Amino acid sequence: MMGRMAAWGEAERSSLPPAGTRGDEPSGFAAGVVLADLERLTPEEMEHLFFGVLSDPDAAEEVRLPSRPQSAGVARRLVLSVLRTWKLHQLMEAVELLTGELVANAVRHTGGRMIGLKVTRRPGWLRVEVRDSSRALPCLIQATEVGYQNGHGLRLVESIADRWGADLLPRGKGVWFELKIRERAAATA
Fold first, then answer.
1. Does residue 25 lie in a domain region?
2. Neighbours of 99 (CB within 10 A)
3. What does residue 151 show for φ and ψ, rounded to 5 degrees?
C-alpha cells in the first residue's frame, strides 16, 4: 500500500514544464542557465551552484538537474550537505539512500530532460521531493525473480520512509518521502 498521497502545500506547488520548452531552464536563481550549460557542469560544479538554494529553509525554489544517471549522485550529496547544515545527522543515511532511489527512478522511467529536487523542513518532518515532467504515477511492482535487480527502489522507500507518495502537478508529478525528525528537547540552563 502506498503512503499518504498528499501533504502540505501540494496545491500551491509549481511543476516542471514539458521537455523541449524554454521551461527546461532553471528558474529564479539561475534563470540564464540552460540545459546545455548544466550538462557541461561537473557534479562538483552543480553542487556548488545549487547548495545555497536547497539549504535555505525559506526558499521556495527547487534545484533543477539534467535527467542523467550522474544527477543521482549530485542529488545525494546535495541533500547530505543540507542535512549537515540543518544538523540532522541522524537522518543522513536514510535520506541519501531514498533520494538516490527517487532520482534514479525519475531518470530511468520518465524520459524528461530535467528533474527537480526540493528539500523541505517543517516542525517534526523532513521532506524530499523529486519532480519530473511525466504524469505517470509510480507503482510498486512485484519483483518475483530472486536475482532481479530492478523494482526494489520504491519498496525501499516504502519500508524506510515514514510517509511517501506522488502528487500530480499541472505539468508532471512530484514523488516524495518524509521522515520524522526527532527534535532534541530544549536545553535547560
1. yes
2. 24
3. 95, 0
Closest to 105 measured CA to CA, from 145, 63, 74, 69: 69
**22 grid coordinates:** 524554454
What cell numbers appear for 84 in the block?
Answer: 549537515
Q: Is residue 188 part of a domain?
A: no
Angstrom distance (rounded) from CA 151 to CA 47: 28
CA gap 147, 133 in Å, rounded:
31
Q: Is 177 exposed, middle or buried (0-12, 13-18, 19+ CB in 10 A)?
A: buried
pTM (whole model) above 0.85: no
CATH of the domain at 80: 3.30.565.10
pLDDT in tens, 101-112: 999 999 998 888
Higher pLDDT, 1 or 76: 76
Q: Is 126 exposed, middle or buried (0-12, 13-18, 19+ CB in 10 A)?
A: buried
Nearest C-alpha neighbor of 129 from the set 2, 25, 13, 12: 13
In the predicted structure, residue 80 carries a pLDDT above the cut 70:
yes
What is the rounded CA–CA span in Å between residue 101 and residue 157? 8
* Residue range(s) defining the domain that contains residue 41: 10-180
Q: Is residue 114 part of a domain?
A: yes
Residue 45 contacts residue 78 (beta carbons within 8 Å) = no
Separation of alpha carbons 9 and 31, rounded Å: 24
Q: Look at the chain and report how many structural domains it folds into.
A: 1
